[in-house]
Amino acid sequence: MKNFTAPSWAPLLQRHHINTFDALWNLDLEPVDVPNLERGGHSEVSLLTLEDQRFFVKRQTNHLGRSLQRPFGEPTFAREFRNIQRFEALNIPALEAAWFGERRSQGTWCSILVTPALEGYSDLIAWHARWNQLSEHEQVSVIEASARLLATLHDTGWMHGSLYAKHVFLKSQPGHWEARLIDLEKSRPLLRRTAERLRDLDVFTRRLTTWQPEDWTTFFTAYAGTVESGRFWQEKLNKRLKRKGKS
User: Fold this and answer.
1) Helix axis angle, 213-224 relative to 227-243, nearest 10°?
2) Which end of the chain has fewer CB atoms surrounding its CB within 10 Å, N or C?
3) Distance CA 169, CA 166 (A)
């Protein structure tokens, strides 16, 4: 069994006596969504509030993902926890982990990942839903903050692997906007840098139907750093979408 507790959250978890695997596993919490029964196991996410701080408690049983490094599989939350730590070390803004643990016994492999809610943030789909209510300055700020986040991810040599707009979270701060990534289960280093960047960008563009051509020009300019480089990536993506029959 392997356990991790973030030092910043350890006192809070200890005060409420939920700083052990058994205590967290036995919490009676309502799932926030339908449990995931794929991969031959069970995986669910619940919401927990402690002293005005919300946490997502993610628990799973035999819900395994396989890779070249781990051909026999591991809990997908173990992979996400590892990626959270990697992103933190690489200064890629993302969610954080408050607690992680796993237990394997008699053919059953359980894991728990506890992540603090991104208080004050909203996902990009939520911002997009009220796009016409935002000022022009706010719209540009959201676009550029999202683009800079994706550029940081890719320039560091990583891909998200499931980069839907709902996995990009943003918050307005005095003088600037902050953006962070969530759902890092499928994140991994870029192998084919151009193709896999485009794959992430392809997924990201879906459902952002309100953004106009000038918005995408702003996005790609911020993503690539210059108008010319932005045009390069925009044209590359458009060619990919045409081959797939999406435009």
Assistant:
1) 120
2) N
3) 7
